[in-house]
């Protein structure tokens, strides 16, 4: 807080048995760390526990301030900028790889969705069918229109239409029974 800076070096050693990262400091040190200064005369030291994170390990990533921030002591400006460029390059490559993976996953998911959609359409969407015995039905309708009030004149066409429908129902029933037998045997 004064015009001079302190050149005193302090080393903190972890002497806890449990290694929980607790460092004991005095009240005046806590006030100085909080930026309140040390206006009172030296009082007897009362230790208090201040929880701090454990010291960084060798595997922890090195914290590098972004450009425009002061260069940490011990390295030159050029080394600092090179480190920043290296880190930026690493993250740009990583971002590009993640984007590529996202595109691949999107296309795979899109293909899977399209295949599922085709399966649903094949199973559930009704395909337009031609009417059963449609040509005979048409003959019966034309006969009825031509002979209004005299429907007995169209009995041969109507009988042929009914026989066609019955035959188709019988064939369809046989096919359904065969499919049921085949599906049960597999």
Automatic annotation (TrEMBL):
It comes from the Eukaryota. Residues 1-63 are annotated as: Disordered. Pfam families: MIC19_MIC25 (PF05300). It is found in: Mitochondrion inner membrane. Residues 29-46 have a biased composition (Basic and acidic residues). It is a lipid-anchor. The keyword Aminoacyl-tRNA synthetase does not apply. Keywords: Disulfide bond, Lipoprotein, Membrane, Mitochondrion, Mitochondrion inner membrane. Its main location: mitochondrion. The keyword S-adenosyl-L-methionine does not apply. This is MICOS complex subunit Mic19-like isoform X2. The lineage of its organism: Eukaryota, Metazoa, Ecdysozoa, Scalidophora, Priapulida.
């Amino acid at each position: 807080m004064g015009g001079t800076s302190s050149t005193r070096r302090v080393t903190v050693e972890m002497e806890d048995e449990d290694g929980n990262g607790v460092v004991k400091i005095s009240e005046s040190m806590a006030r100085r760390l909080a930026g309140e200064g040390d206006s009172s005369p030296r009082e007897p030291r009362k230790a208090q526990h201040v929880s701090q994170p454990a010291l960084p390990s060798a595997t922890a990533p090195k914290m590098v301030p972004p450009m425009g921030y002061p260069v940490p002591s011990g390295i030159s400006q050029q080394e600092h900028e090179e480190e920043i460029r290296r880190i930026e390059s690493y993250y740009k490559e990583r971002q590009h790889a993640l984007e590529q993976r996202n595109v691949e996953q999107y296309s795979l998911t899109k293909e899977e969705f399209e295949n599922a959609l085709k399966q649903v359409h094949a199973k559930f969407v009704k395909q337009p069918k031609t009417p059963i015995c449609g040509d005979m039905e048409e003959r019966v309708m034309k006969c009825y229109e031509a002979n209004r009030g005299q429907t007995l004149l169209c009995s041969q066409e109507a009988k042929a239409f009914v026989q066609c429908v019955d035959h188709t129902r019988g064939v369809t029933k046989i096919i359904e029974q065969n499919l049921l037998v085949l599906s049960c045997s597999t």
